Amino acid sequence: MPELDFSAERMSEMTVDDVTEICCDQCKTIFTGHVWVYSGSTEFNIEGPHEFAFQGDMPMYEPEEEFEPADDPHSIALEALELLDSMVGSEGPRNDPQFTNRLVFAGAVACLEAYLGDTLINEIRADSDARDQLLKNDRNLGGEKLTAASLVENPDALTTLVVSKLRTVLYHRLGDAKRMYRQALGINIFPSDHEREFLFPAMQLRHDCVHRNGRDKEGNKLTGFTEEYVHSAIAAIRAVVDHVEFTRTDDLEF
Does the pLDDT value for residue 64 go beyond 60? Predict the structure, then answer.
């Protein structure tokens, strides 16, 4: 199950949803569907091989293995976006001709998420001023507490705490990403209004691709993933990635 969005400012905004698989202990059947995680409960809507629904308490999470951000998120993102761009228009299933384009689109959004997350974490680790600015400006992070003993035991405990919180951020929520980059680094992740106005609605389409196989809430198949649209989406994502990278480093002395 997905974790709650702990970066949200209000409890009502912490709800998240995702696809899920559940295995029956008795017959070993794999059931698939969707799960919604709220601040105090969970809700499952199973869609196959049989339809049913049930609710549960708030989930308890086991510790996850921590990932290490890439050393050079920019070059990795550019390489992946170039490869994805070359796949636009590739042949897809006859009964779903835009299937491949949707996969490419979702992959491009994943590149943006990885770049924004890895880059922000790397900056917080490398620059205590950026970390302190984020703590001062972000109400949720600024309210986190550490004991004096933990700071004595580990002088980097404050940075470790902030990084652990940044790992839980959903960076396709561009409003959150924009806010945190402004708070920590004082930069706007969007090079112009064009990218902002294009990518915000694109994130909802990403949700429909990942969670509904390209269908909207009413079950209608989306047909807007033309070659022109997906190329434009990749171009807008590349523009954001380049803008953040060059704005972030333009004051460095070489």
Answer: no
